[in-house]
Amino acid sequence: MDSPSNATMPCGFLLQGFSEFPHLRPLLFLLLLGVHLATLSGNLLILVAVASMPSRQPMLLFLCQLSAIELCYTVVVVPRSLADLSTPGHGRGSPISFLGCAFQMQMFVALGGAECFLLAAMAYDRYVAICHPLRYAAVVTPGLCARLALACCLGGLAVSVGLTVAIFHLPFCGSRLLVHFFCDITALLHLACTRSYADELPLLGACLVLLLLPSVLILASYGAIAAALHRLRCPGGRGKAASTCASHLAVTFLHYGCATFMYVRPRASYSPRLDRTLALVYTNVTPLLYPLIYSLRNREITAALSRVLGRRRPGQAPEGDLREL
User: Fold this and answer.
1) Where do the domains of the chain lie, and which CATH numbers do they carry?
2) What is the DSSP secondary structure assignment for residue 5, as one 8-state letter?
3) In this structure, are strands 177-178 and 13-15 parallel, antiparallel, or unpaired?
4) CA distances from 260 to 210, 273, 304 (A)
5) Model's pTM, two decimal places?
6) Which of 28, 65, 212, 214 is the most exposed place for a label (fewest CB within 10 A)?
7) How far apart (Å, rounded) are the C-alpha atoms in residues 222 and 163?
8) Tens of pLDDT, residues 85-137
C-alpha cells in the first residue's frame, strides 16, 4: 500500500475494467465494438451529409459540432476499454499513468461540458426560430454560430482543467485500483484517502457551471417557446413548431439526465461497481442514440443521408425545412 506521504506521487493507477468477469470479456468486447463502430458511422454520416448540402442554415453548424463532440467523446473512452478487454493478461487491472489518467478525465469533462453549453446554444436557436421567425436570418448568423461554438468548447475546456487540477491534487493512498474502465470523477474521488466535504466542492462548482447554468438558459428558452406556442391559434402550426424542438429536447434530457444522476450526489452514495455499469451505458449507448434521434426526426438530414448513400433519384429535390432540427 502507498503511504499518505507519497500518495500523490505520479505512480499511476490500475483500471480494473471488467477483469473480474473473464468469461464475459469476449462477448462484452464484441458488443462494445459493434456499438462503437455504429456510433462512429452514425456521427460521421451526419458530418458528411451536412457537408454535402449545397446551402446550410446556421443551425447545422451546431449539429456538426454535436456530432464531432460525440465522435471525440467516444474515442477518449472506448478504444482503451476495447484494448483492455482484448488483452487477457492484466490480472487485477490495466495500468495507466498518472498523467494519462488526468488527461483522459480532463478530455472527458471538457467534451461533456462543451456539449452542455452547446445544447443551451441550440435552445437559443430554437427560441429565435419560433418566437422571432422573421428576424431569424438576421439574428442567428453563421458568424454568431461560430462564436457560440467556440465559446462552448473554451468553456468546457476551462472548467475541465480546473476540475482536473483539483481532483489530482487530492492524496491517493492505499490501493491504486480504480473500479472502472476509465478515469471517471466518481472513481477517483472514491479512491482519495480524504473524506472531507471540501474535496467535493470542485465537482459541485463544475456541476453548477456545466449543468445548472445551461439548464436555466434552456428552461428560459423553452418557457418563451411554450408561451409563443400557446398564443398560436392554428393547431397545425403549433404541432409543426413543437416538432422542431423534439430532437433537441430528447438529446437534452438524455445528456443532462445522465450527468445529473451520476455527478450531482454526495460521495457517500458512490457505488463503484454500479457507477461503472451506468457509465457503460452513458458512454456507449447515448452517443449512439444522438445521431439516430436527429437523423430520423429531421427530413433534411434524412434526405442528405439518402443522397450520400446514393438512394435518392437524380434530380429529386430534398424535402423539409432546413430549420426542422
Assistant:
1) 13-305 (1.20.1070.10)
2) G
3) parallel
4) 10, 18, 34
5) 0.86
6) 212
7) 30
8) 888 665 677 889 999 999 999 999 999 999 999 999 999 999 998 888 889 98
What is the number of other CB atoms lying within 10 angstroms of the CB of residue 195? 8
CA-CA-CA-CA dihedral for 146, 150, 152, 153, to nearest 10: 140
Q: Is 315 left (phi over 0), alpha (psi -120 to 50) or beta?
A: left
Helical segments of 95-234, H only: 98-131, 136-139, 142-167, 185-191, 201-207, 213-231
Residue for cell digits 470479456?
Answer: 25
Q: Angle, to 10 degrees, between the axis of helix 285-297 and the axis of helix 246-263?
A: 170
| Cα gap 231→217, rounded to integer Å | 22
Whole-angstrom Cα Rg for the chain: 22
* Residue keyed to cell 473512452: 77
What is the number of other CB atoms lying within 10 angstroms of the CB of residue 53?
Answer: 17
Q: For residue 128, which of 244, 294, 259 has the smallest C-alpha distance?
A: 244
Q: Which residue has the cell 483500471?
A: 15
Is 179 in contact with 276 (CB distance < 8 Å)?
yes
Cα→Cα distances 301→56, 95, 288, 291, 297, Å: 11, 42, 16, 10, 8
Q: How high does pLDDT run on average in the chain?
A: 83
**Pairing of β 177-178 and β 94-96:** unpaired
- DSSP codes of every residue in 34-101: HHHHHHHHHHHHHHHHHHH-SS--THHHHHHHHHHHHHHHHHHHHHHHHHHHH-GGGTT-EEE-HHHH
CA 214 to CA 138: how far, in whole Å?
24
Q: 225: closest CA among 294, 125, 296?
A: 125
Distances (CA, A) of 74 to 27, 276, 282: 19, 16, 10
List the grid coordinates of 290.
444522438
